[in-house]
Amino acid sequence: MENPSSKPATIEDVAKIAGVSIATVSRAIRMPEKVAESTRKKVIAAIARTGYTANAMAQNLRMQRSKMVMILAHSISDPNFPGILTGLEKVANARDYGVLIGNTEANIDAEEKYLRFLATGMADGLVLLTGHLPVAGWAKSPPNTFPAMVSVSKPVPQEEISYVGVDDENGAKLATDYLISLGHEQIAFIGGPQGDIVSEMRFQGYCNALTSHFKRSSPWRVQGDGSHEGGRAAIERLFIRDTLPTAFVCYNDDTAIGVISALNARKYYVPSDFSVVGFDDIQFASSMVPSLTTVRQPRIMIGERAMNQLLDIIATPDTKPVKELLHGDLVIRESCAPPRAGGAL
């Protein structure tokens, strides 16, 4: 055992000596029946060598549950985050739980550090707003070894993880259907980051609308990155072409704002020259000029449903995973109109 005067051992020390992941050490302490005997022995030996177990295990035995939940967010500056957090906290407070927020900024090391709250019993479950499992090794772990967790807004690839979010596919179809109802046929989709699952689902909804209205649908996709600047850059690439669309379905509102800004810079006007639809209905969407037609996410409801699911899983670990898609509403404002006479510019 280490010298009492030295720096207290951490779960990382145990994992390093045992040659396993932090998540495995956590499971060995909190759910030993779900860890292979050979692995459990390695962890026990490492715990004995470091002296780590005293505080962590005593706390777990004393408290049983921490009554706290860890929320991992890609970025708390995401305009969708405050509404989702409101819903999460509302339900957590009503069920006597508190929340801890981890702002990862897509940093894997930061994610693993935040997981100490789970590993040491300071948090009972995890809300993921990152779109991936926070520890690479978890993806290859048996589903029954995962801690209690729910993915929100962006699903993780593992079907064993419950998910709550807006129906991205149907929402994008609603937006495209609306443009078609105004008479638009040449409609471009400005996508999100390369490989982003939400962007892919929204693109599929756009394609579904084209297919349902036109015998020969020709999807028109331009790559963006989900930002204002990505929307501007997409328009600049489009204007290199000989033909242009008459309307745009955008991955999100930030992209749509960039599209409108780029069109204005070229002395075109929305909606008289081009129509633009966003997705999310962020706060700025209603106050910009022209006000933005968009698909509104039920952010607070998403947070409420997700927290209820997570706390149910914590209370009953054998709860089956659920995929819950909530309806997004098309909010019609000033950024769309019938195509100008003569069609595309």
From TrEMBL:
Gene3D superfamilies recorded: 3.40.50.2300, lambda repressor-like DNA-binding domains
Query: Is Ion transport a UniProt keyword of this protein?
Result: no
Q: Which UniProt keywords apply?
A: DNA-binding, Transcription, Transcription regulation
Residue ranges annotated for the HTH lacI-type domain, each copy included: 9-63
Heme as UniProt keyword: no
Q: Which Pfam families match?
A: LacI, Peripla_BP_3
Name under which the protein is recorded:
LacI family transcriptional regulator
Task: Tell me what organism the protein belongs to.
Answer: Maritalea mediterranea
